[in-house]
Design a protein that fits this description.
alpha+beta, Butyryl-Coa Dehydrogenase, subunit A, domain 1, Butyryl-CoA Dehydrogenase, subunit A, domain 2, Butyryl-CoA Dehydrogenase, subunit A, domain 3, four-stranded mixed β-sheet, four-stranded antiparallel β-sheet, 12 helices
Amino acid sequence: MSFDFSIGEEQRGFLETVDRFMARHLPPEEIRRRDREHVPPYDKLPAMGEAGLLALPIPAAHGGMGRDWRDVALVQMRLGERGYMAASIFNRVIGFGAMSLLAYGSAAQRAELLPRIAAGRLLIALALTEPEAGTDAASLRTRAERVSGGWRITGRKTWISDAAGADYMLVAARSRAGSEGAEGISMFLVPPRAPGIAMTQLPKVGNNAMPSWDIGLDGVEVGEDALVGEEGRGFRHLMSTLHYSRASMAATVTGCAQAAVSLALSHARERRQFGRPIGAFQAIRHRLADMQMRVDQSRLVVMHLAWAIASGAECRREAAQAKIVATECLQYVADHGMQVLASAGYSADGDMQRYWRDARLYSFGEGSNEIQRDIVARELGL
């Protein structure tokens, strides 16, 4: 049985809200349909907002609830367990959108955009990665030039999740000619349907409800008010908020990992071979025990990070650790779950193959686990 991290009636109420939301809007059969048909859950964001879920970390002054990150982590894990695509879009709305604006958006941007995020009526896609700037994101080449009344942006972005479905893209561009590395990069809010933008959807192995796009920006013009944060310090701004998106991802995939273990346990109890349930065989029992232990360890790391964020502690190492532990946990349990279910897991009609396909992204998505280990080593003084 999974450990219950809820700490009071309010937290249990949030989890019950998640259960009601998922039962009504994204039950298992609907999740399977959307995966098969590659339909993202953008249309469910207003209902998620109405349920109060997206308002959790947003201050009351901007239409939110002002809850700390421990509540956010609990909700994300439950969403991940009930339906990964719901937790994933929650992650991107909060981690890339709300927390970026809270950390370095202007007062006007926060006043205008945060209430819309809390209500589930605004989606911001992070446009950072480029063909030659993935793990080495600070080597990006997209440039922003000052023009009368604003900026002109030219370049290319790739593997940008949600770009076509977003209200804005948060585009990283080099705003100082001749700058290198992290210096001279700024962040801009760019409408994805602005003149000069061309998009091509990229086919993927998994995460079918999270469409990704290759984007060309050919002289796209935005106003002065599109600049988010200080000019030339955008990359540093991004680095200062990565612990939110990594915390979100870690909680999300931990919930999904629990769903994979639960499915494998159910199958092991029901599937009979040689006259008894396969869960009675030591090889299967030990495999399942290891799977659940991995999830419980991941949950502890996720909640430790949530505590660090809530307490205002510096948490670069905790965020990197949580991202590594949680994403490798999901890969482990999905792979071993496929072995437990065997042909039943390999069936395209089942859920385990979706966990297995989706899991592979996250050990390199949002910062590869090799880079996360470097971060941990640096924080240890190595």
